[in-house]
Amino acid sequence: MITTAQETEGAGVPRLNVGEWIETGFGWVNDNLGALFDLIRTVVSTLTSGLDDLLNTPDALLLAVAFSLLGWLVKDWKLGLLSIVMLVFVISIDQWENAMTTLALVAVAAGIALVIAIPLGIWAARSDRVSGAIRPVMDLMQTMPAFVWLVPVVTLFSIGVTSGVVATIIFALPPGVRFTELGIRGVDPEVVEAGHAFGSTPGQILLRIQLPLALKTIMAGVNQVIMLALSMAVIAGLVGAGGLGGEVMRAIGSLDIGLAFEAGLAVVVLAIYLDRVTSAIGHGGMAVGRMSKLLRRGRPRRSPEPAATKAA
């Protein structure tokens, strides 16, 4: 039987069955690499559930105080005060457990994304070929609508928290790669040449010159990865990731305006807290000074040397 090619609305332009090709490819991957995806599902779900249990085990108010102390340490008392007020607000609207579940998902997804993104960004900064090869992949990952990533991950990992974590990793990873590459490429070439002149190896130049000088830019990328992970973690509630995303989806299903705003405000609190803390760590300064002062207070003072010893 002779089949005729389908045409699109444009006259003479044949229909490309890209969707069918992609679906066939995912079917092949799922059939042949099922054991690998089962292993990934087990590892990710174990990490996420373990961290979720850890965050939900202590008393909510005690953990809120601990988070507030962290804010004070990395910046100042104003961030500590703002943190305790916001976190107590989350407790008061009965969204603390869901917020900690979302925080666990974000922490696991952002951590895995950064483990992949930072080495990849370093590699791209050191090789123009690698940079040119991964740029279109990063563009695809970053510009593809977030909901689209939920379909393939559910195909590979089924409904559950693993699908939410993997979709979050895909969506949040590109800024980590881009900012790391940008930061290392932005290091003054003369400083790098000085390192070569003193006989430093490429590894020493990377660890002692390029990474320290690019740290602020890399931390800006870390901040963006965490923010994108948080936004995607809410969307991941559609595939059973739970947490605040699950509450938002439940509110949409029942048209519960109150629940939707309570879960949404809890997301806002998490976003503000994570943004302020990571930004403060990235800028360093006050955090380093405060911690060093605390450490110096605990050290015994050196006794002055005798005058005779100095004269000798």
Automatic annotation (TrEMBL):
Record-annotated ABC transmembrane type-1 domain positions: 99-278
Cell compartments where the protein resides: Cell membrane; Membrane
Keywords: Cell membrane, Membrane, Transmembrane, Transmembrane helix, Transport
One GO biological process term: choline transport
TM region positions: 54-74, 79-96, 102-125, 146-173, 225-245, 257-274
Entry's family note: Belongs to the binding-protein-dependent transport system permease family.
CDD domains: TM_PBP2
Claim: Transit peptide is one of the keywords in the record: no
Protein name according to UniProt: Glycine betaine/proline transport system permease protein
InterPro entries, A to Z: MetI-like, MetI-like_sf
Cellular component aspect of the GO annotation: ATP-binding cassette (ABC) transporter complex
Bilayer topology term: Multi-pass membrane protein
Pfam family, any one: BPD_transp_1
Single GO MF descriptor: carnitine transmembrane transporter activity
Main location: membrane
